[in-house]
Structure formats: C-alpha cells, structure tokens
Amino acid sequence: MKNLKYKDIEAFVFRLWEREVSGEHRSQKETQLLDQWKIHVEKNLDTNHMKKSAERVFFSLEPYFIQPGITSHPNSFRKYVYQIAAVIILLFSIGGIFTYHTFFKPDVYVAKSENQKVYLADGSVVTLFPGAELTVEKSFPADTRVVDLKGDAIFSVAKSKKHPFIVQADGFSTKVLGTVFKITQTGNDKAVDLYEGKVAVSYGGVPVTFLKPHQKWTNFGVARTAAVISFREENHSQKELPSLLSLSFNDVTLKEVAEVLQENYNISIVYPKDVADKKITADFTGGSTDENVEALAFILGLDVQKEKQMYILKKQP
Fold first, then answer.
1. What are the backbone angles phi and psi of residue 37, rounded to the nearest 5°?
2. Which residues, 6 or more positions from 14, have their beta carbon under 8 angstroms from its beta carbon?
3. Which of 62, 156, 208, 266 is most buried by a 10 A CB count?
C-alpha cells in the first residue's frame, strides 16, 4: 500500500462508512484501495480476536437498529449491522496504530556511517557516533529526563536543577542535572568521560561514582568493577597524564582483580593457582600500590613478598 498519512486514511474510511450505510455506490478503484488497506491493517491481527470483536460490536449495536421493517428480516439486519461493525473495527484498528505511533511509540535515532546530532525537546544535544542508537520516549521531557543509549555518544545536557537527566546504557546509568560528557561502550568495556559539570555513575553493585571535570569512570572491561581516572596536563605540555583515583571491586575473581592491578600499577602479581577463582570485594581508593596489594593479601589470608615490581602472594606457614 502506498505511503498514506494516518489522517488521510481515517478520512478515507469515514467516507466509505458513510457510503456503506447509505447504500451509495463505491467505485472499483475505491473498493481496491479499501481491500489493500484492510490487508495492510489486518495482517498482524488475530482472526479469532477480530471475529469476537465483531460479535461484541454487533450485539452492542443491535438495540439501536431494531426498527419496523428490519426485524422481520433478521438475516438482512445482521448483514447490515455486520457491515457497520466491520468498518468500526477497522477504524479502531487503524486508530490504535495511529495513536501508538503518534503518542506512545518511542523515537529511535540511529547513526549509520557518520556522526549524527539529535536535538531533544528540552534543549539537550546528543552527538551519536557511527553505530550508536538513542531511544527517546514520547513522554520526554518529564520530571526525570530518561533516554536509552546503545553505542557511543557525547551529551550536552540542558541545565535543570529540578529535572535530572539519566542515560541508561548497557548495564550502567549516568545521572546529571546539566553537563557535557561522553559515554563509550565497546564490548564489555564501559566508560564515561566528563568535560563539564558533575555526573553520578551507577553500575553493578559497586558504590555510586561521582565525577568532576577531566575525570573518567571505567570498568576496565570487568563486570562489577569501577574506577575513576583523573587527567591532568603535564607542565609546559598539552599531554594529559592519567592518575587512578579510586578502584572498587564487588564479588570479582582474584584473577580479574590481579589483571586490573597489574595493568594500572605496572606491576606483576604471583599467587597460588587454587585461589584464582576466589571472589574479592574491596575498595582500593587512596592507598599506595604496596598498601593495596597488602590489603588484597590480607583478604585472601596470604602473606606478600615484594621483589622489585613483583608481588608474590604465599600461603601462610
């Protein structure tokens, strides 16, 4: 069926209904269009449901059409009312589709081969990177401004102290009142880079993380892990030096914890193989490398021996 606007379809059906009940002639072209439209609307509808709906409409309308001259021909009467009921049901069907698309179906924006800017109703601007998808409910902006994101995007959020802005991503969410930040999702790696304002990041049972400008939240690609990295400019240089400010684990295996510590502290950790899958819950915020490795050993009930940049965790004698 050709692309017709819903209001045009409704007007067309109402006109046919008038002709149907008045006995006015329908042209062959109009009949063909109606048949095409019926196929288009009914293809996803359940046949039994339509039949029962027709019967309910018929019995609801029957008292209003019992007039002298009609009751003596019940079959003609039923045929007459069924024609009206069929049109009404079709109107309800297309009206439901029209209402859903107009008032309920979320708006989905997809950046295909290049960046795409999305201008939201509250004045916020979202820049989607290729492959990203943004879903915005019809109720936006409500008391709480909520959007869903797949992929990577930069958000420039219109300020509002009364209406928080929440981005629901894959397994984590970012809450702001008005700021500029970037969300990155690559496989299991999740990250939020803050450029202006403040944000709160919630993820996987670890404490809520609050970021300041020039800070980054990341999970290092490990579930139930959260870290904050600060970037500061090197003296007389535009180069930014990363600094790990906080690191939290919630029920994460020793193997995964050790990998994160080794990568970020530039160290090696050796431990007994039989404790590799032991789950660790710990907050290594504020401690030095030595203090954090010693805290890890204490949790495991192990001793620690240091040899240059290598930490050896041993079972106690």
1. -65, -40
2. 91
3. 156
Please tell me the predicted confidence (pLDDT) of residue 192: 97
Using alpha carbons, select from 187, 109, 176, 199 the residue that is nearest to residue 148.
109
CA dist 276 to 103, 251, 253, 271, 295, Å? 53, 13, 7, 8, 16
Q: In the prediction, which pLDDT does 100 show?
A: 47
Euclidean distance between CA atoms 234 and 263, whole angstroms = 22
Count of other CB atoms within 10 angstroms of residue 90: 21
Q: Note the residue count of the chain.
A: 317
Q: What DSSP line would sit under 233-288, residue for residue?
A: EPTTS-PEEEEEEEEEEEEEEHHHHHHHHHHHHT-EEE--GGGTT-EEEEE-TT--
Token reading at 103: 């008032």
pLDDT tens-place string over residues 136-195: 998 898 888 999 999 999 999 999 988 999 999 999 999 998 899 999 999 999 999 999
pLDDT score of 1:
44
How would you classify the pairing of strands 145-150 and 165-168?
parallel
Beta strands in the chain (DSSP E): 107-110, 116-119, 125-128, 133-136, 145-150, 153-156, 165-168, 172-176, 180-186, 189-196, 199-203, 206-211, 215-218, 225-233, 240-253, 268-270, 279-283, 302-307, 310-315
What is the maximal distance between C-alpha atoms in the chain?
A: 107
Compute the distance between CA of residue 256 and CA of residue 170 in angstroms, rounded to an integer.
20
C-alpha neighbours within 13 Å on the C-beta side of residue 110: 5
The pLDDT value given to residue 97: 52
Supply the pLDDT for residue 6: 47
Among candidate residues 145, 233, 164, 154, the one with its CA nearest the CA of residue 191: 154
pLDDT < 70: residue spans in the chain: 1-26, 30-31, 33-104, 233-241
